[in-house]
Amino acid sequence: MRKLLLILSIFAFTNLSYGQAISIKEASKSVETITKTNSKEVQKQIQNGLTSNDELAAMGADYLKGNSDTQSDFYKLLKDNKGSVNLAMKAVMNNPKLKSSVMDYITANPEIMTKALGMLGM
């Protein structure tokens, strides 16, 4: 009985330690992402990526299409640019409301921010 209790205790301690190690790794990644997000250089790179990287532009466009606050303005820009997402995203960068909205969306979500940085080779 004592052997079983000892084995279960070791097993529980190992699982508890492993769980904390994962949390620490995830926390450090989040801190690193937040630090990168606050950099003006990174902000500028993301803005450039939204206009030049097709995948990132599509991600930003999907957000603007799905957000009720920006939907009508974005569809107007999309129509004005003959349906071109890249041209519409260039126009978004000249619209303070839409630009702020899409940048806030990307920088506020660590998963999306990490994905965006990966697309940009950062």
Topology:
Layout: H1 2-37, H2 40-52, H3 54-66, H4 71-80, H5 85-92, H6 96-108, H7 110-119
Helix pairs in contact: 2-3, 3-4, 3-5, 3-6, 4-5, 6-7
Structure description:
The structure is a single chain. This protein is mostly helical and 122 residues long. It folds into two domains: 1-30; 39-119. The chain has seven helices and no strands. It has helices at residues 2-37, 40-52, 54-66, 71-80, 85-92, 96-108, 110-119. Helix 3 packs across helix 4 (71-80) and helix 6 (96-108) packs across helix 7. It is elongated. The termini are far apart. The model has no long low-confidence stretch (mean pLDDT 78).
Average pLDDT number = 78
**Count of individual domains:** 2
* Beta strand %: under 5%
Tally of separate helices: 7
- Spans of at least 5 consecutive residues with low confidence: none
Q: Choose one word for the global shape.
A: elongated
Percent helix range: over 70%
Order of helices and strands: HHHHHHH
SS class: mainly alpha
Q: Tell how many strands the DSSP assignment holds.
A: 0
Gyration radius, rounded: 21 Å
Distance between the termini: 55 Å
Main β sheet profile: none
Considering the chains and any ligands shown, give keywords for the structure.
single chain, 122 residues, mainly alpha, 2 domains
